[in-house]
Amino acid sequence: MRKPYLPLVVLLLFVVIIGGSWLRIFNEYWQLVFLFMGINIILTVSLNLINGYMGEFSCGHAGFMAVGAYVTSILTVWLFAEDKVFGPPVLPAAWAIPLFPVALIIGAVAASLAGLLIAIPSFRTRGDYLAIITLAVNYIVKSAIENMEFIGGPRGFVGMKRVMNNMADVFNAPWLLIWTFIGMIITILIVHRFVSSTLGKGVEAIREDEIAAELMSVNTRRIKVIAFMLSCGLAGLAGGLFAHWPGGYINPGTFTILKSTEVMVMVYLGGMGSISGSIISAIGFTLLLEVLRPLGVFKWVVIPLLLVVMMLFRPTGILGNKELSDVFPRLRAIFGSEEESYALASD
Hints:
The protein is mainly α. The chain has a single domain (5-346), classed as ABC transporter involved in vitamin B12 uptake, BtuC (Orthogonal Bundle). 70% of the residues lie in helices and 1% in strands. It contains 17 helices and two strands. Helix 8 packs antiparallel against helix 11 (220-243) and helix 9 packs across helix 11 (220-243). It is globular. The chain starts with a helix and ends with a helix.
């Protein structure tokens, strides 16, 4: 009965952050922090689908982020910006606003197709062996980009800042922040719907016992392909958004195993198989990086120590495999289904 309040709460949060950025209540620094928060939430929730809900061990998420970043960047620069490689823009700057999400979707689809590089080998491998394959894919993508001179090779690719400036010239708004939060909300809804569906139950069955799932007529190969492609596609969406950050510059060195490790840390910190935990850990980890920024390189000493302490006292992560509504049952009256609300009221 109270379920309609959920989109209202999400919309209110969206309006506060976007409106505050638009009205300059939040300065450029905080806008950048909010941007990275949204991108990290997309990455963490998407990887949790594989590592948490399906119980596989993928550690090459940054490779698919790189595919989405480069495909989206090439499209937007070619279509809407003056560039020394691609020449004058193909379309007027006014078209950048409505077509930018289309470029993001194309980048996500490209990353999703690249996800087949680990989806198909996953039919025969699991655990450590699959981790090695995902590492190899990460290095394959990085090395392939480094050898593509027409997009800058190891020097990187630029021009995305001109795209965002053209969008702001047409209508001045924090466009990247807007699309990041829309992408974040869509990611959360897609993953939540997927894990709650019949296919999602098959994903959990694979985590518990893949052989038993096959004996119970679960099409494990089909489910693995769908889950891997969905997860990698959402990583590509995050990459496309990341590529257009205010610096307007990306290079292959950004998408190394270190970046994949950061995403894995956020997944395990929040809790395996918990969307709420992924969101909380992504927000907390982003803020922690900013708080420890004055330490410079020594922050990478402090952060692992904090994680070690966390794993000693809370090895299942912040929420384990639970959601916030499981920890605080009263939240079901606001965010749950009508049946859950009535059940809670009767209790």
